[in-house]
Amino acid sequence: MRLFVPLLILGLAACTPLGQTSADSFLAREDKSGTCSDGFPAPSKESVYAAGMRVLRQQGYIPDPSLCASDSGTIMTRWKMSLSPFAGTGYREKVTMNIRPVRGRTNYYELSTNVIKQTNDNITEPSNPIAAKWVEGKRNTTMEHLINRRVEMYFLPSDVSPEFREQYRMKPGTSPRIRRPDPVHTEEKEGPIPGLPPLPGFPD
Question: Given CB 3.0 to 4.6 Å as the disulfide criterion, which of 2, 6, 73, 149 pairs with 99?
Answer without folding.
Answer: 73
